[in-house]
Amino acid sequence: AVSQADCYVSLWLPTATCERSRTKTVRNSDNPVWNETFYFRIQSQVKNVLELTVYDEDFATPDDHLLCALFDTAKLPLDKTVILYFKPAADAKEELEVEFKLEVAPGPHEMIASNGVLVCRELCCLEVEVAEKTKQKSKKELSLTVKGSFEGTQDIVLGPNGVVSPSCPTEFHYIKYAEPTLDVMLPKKRRYHPWSCRYSTETGSPVVMLNSLPMGRKTTIAEEKRFDLNVTAKPCNCSCHQDLDMRFGFNLCSEEMAFLEKRKRYVASALKNVFHLPHDLQDQEVPVVAIITTGGGLKSMTGLYGSLMGLKKLNLLDCVTYISGLSGTTWTMANLYRDAYWSQKDLDSHIGEAQKQATKCKMGCFSMDRMKYYNKQLCQRKEEGYRTSFIDLWGLMIEYLLNDGKDPHKLSEQQEALCDGQNPLPIYVSVCVRDSYSTNDFKEWVEFTPYEVGLLKYGAFVRTEHFGSEFFMGRLLKKLPESRICYLQGMWSSIFSVNLLQIWGLSHSSEDFWKRWTQDRIDEVDEEPVLPTRPHELRTRMYTPPGPLSSALRGALTDRFSVAQHHNFLKGYQLHNSYMENEHFCRWKDTVLDSRPNQLMQNPDQLGMIDAGFFINTSSAPLLRPQREVDVIIYLSYTTGSHTSSLDKACKYYSEQKIPFPTISLTDEDKKNLKECYIFQDSDLPGCPIVIFLPLVNDTFQEYKAPGVKRCCSEMEGGQLDLTSSCSPYCMFSVRYTDENYCKLLNLSEYNILNNSQMIMQALQTAMQRRRQKMC
């Protein structure tokens, strides 16, 4: 006879406890009844989603998944018993009956801090000390575990002659109201049994409920012949944002605000001189102009030098407030910002140094001495506390490609180039990704400035010198030395973070064919009876896990060769109960996990970051934060592929996100034969910037060596550049140019700026007029 199911229910509420609970198994029954009660203490300001999963227990194979319901406990009325029925589908015969009751927990209110998206819970610190009573020559080890804490598991070694390692008290940082426990594995004891003439080994494993400990008072939890084990629980203040070691909000940081005030003076003066204005501009009249770029390796690095040279010659560089980059343009930016006053000087020396590096032989990159250097640097980085990857090696190779020796510079040191507002503020762009998810399904924008590094969607920022250090619940618990900028360049311009799904996307217009293999199956259902809903509550969902074949194929399609790994500064945070209604979160809400808070905040220890070009080849996202109030975007496209592709993708993306961005209207003829400059604007859309689109195309430059100056016959060769063919010397993977090819590319990018100066100035005038109209 075929046996019936052996069912049990697993309950997971990670915002209340890190432990999964489960019922007993009811064997050989098609109508199991458990009648078990579970208690969870929840924080009402946190989004608490209970996952109820029914399994059929198997001994020989993994347990079969029968049903998984994701239920938002915010739907429950207070002090009322509610019985709900969960079905995997509306017409399904199987259903799970669950009784709920929500009550107010006695005791003091928990002190929390929140920015409307993230919640910082009340934190405690447990100190564990070993007081040795007798000195012995043997060595003993204790293993201590606080699940869900920052530290996890730590060991204490009792050495010979009373030496205890570590000598200072062992600390655990944990969420106070998450049912924390201390599990202690005491040293093994050997006992002699005279009746059997044998020894047996015994281990002691006391478990301490940490919330039962008196705050601030030393308590002995284990007394052994050799030592006593003492613990002390202490509170960690986190009741306001000032108690945290990271910035918790969506406004600009105070340093950037101060910079903007200083930069306005440069911009106002430059605009007055360029347009010969009869009076000084008021602060409200000064438009915010930003340069954004696309990536493209050495081509984009060289192209940006030429474009900046053109803006410098037009006296427009001082009109720019921000410059953002990704991929190869970050190489230009990082080199320029070593000089604190680069934009106030002639750029010839910087361009000459860049030419020297772009045209040098790169074979020394693989020499034995260089390999030893790479190994030494990676070992040092690992000793400092970083998790190294191939991306770090790539960063060291970039260091060699762009420099004569070791580059000691760090991103935070670029603050010196901003102290008087003398240069535009640089913003470097990356995206955060997750394992087993394609970049289209999961990506989160990350911005890097000399002041701070942050994830736009969460309003969470750490000081730049602290990026890579270890945080827990907003607290800096382990400070690491700041990374040299070459390691960041490896991440910002990584060509090794591609996966098969992205390769498919390069040759096909859509990934839809693979979505059934790479996306989780989540279906919205109505519980019975249907509970009244409020806007911030999540619909009840049924989750169907992928089968073995789907999981294997998904892994093969989404696995990336290498991803930059940095300690996750969001570790420990939970989501606010109304996070889905927060306007700042919704602005960047575009991943498949956004409505699954348990998975979204199931924070890995490491953040995986890749070149933003693997999503949309543009550095525009941070500049469209409404707090930056950008009026004009100078869009410099150096991409090797279609110039309009990244622009169209950006326009589509921002439209879907309801972020103000002008409609891109280009005819098929324009797309086939691009001009040097286009202006896109939408005056009817509030907050929409004017976009000056400058693709790196070789149009009139073929016949003109300078605006209005035609080439003679002997100069025609200087205007011939192969930018698009597969044999082009400017392909993305080219790491060395000849002097001739470098100069041609530099001159072309400079020429395209100079030749379209009137259109650029027209856009700036329009922006000033809009500013004046707002003042009326």
From TrEMBL:
Catalytic activity of the protein: a 1,2-diacyl-sn-glycero-3-phosphocholine + H2O = a 1-acyl-sn-glycero-3-phosphocholine + a fatty acid + H(+)
Domain PLA2c: 239-776
Domain C2 stretches: 1-86
Localization annotation: Cytoplasm, Cytosol; Membrane
Any single biological process term in GO: glycerophospholipid catabolic process
Membrane topology: Peripheral membrane protein
Single GO MF annotation: calcium-dependent phospholipid binding
Cofactor or coenzyme needed: Ca(2+)
Pfam entry (one): cPLA2_C2
Domain notes: The N-terminal C2 domain associates with lipid membranes upon calcium binding.
A single Gene Ontology CC term: cytosol
Record-linked SMART domains: C2 (SM00239), PLAc (SM00022)
Keyword Membrane (UniProt): yes
Protein name (Swiss-Prot/TrEMBL): Phospholipase A2
Species whose genome carries this gene: Catharus fuscescens (Veery)
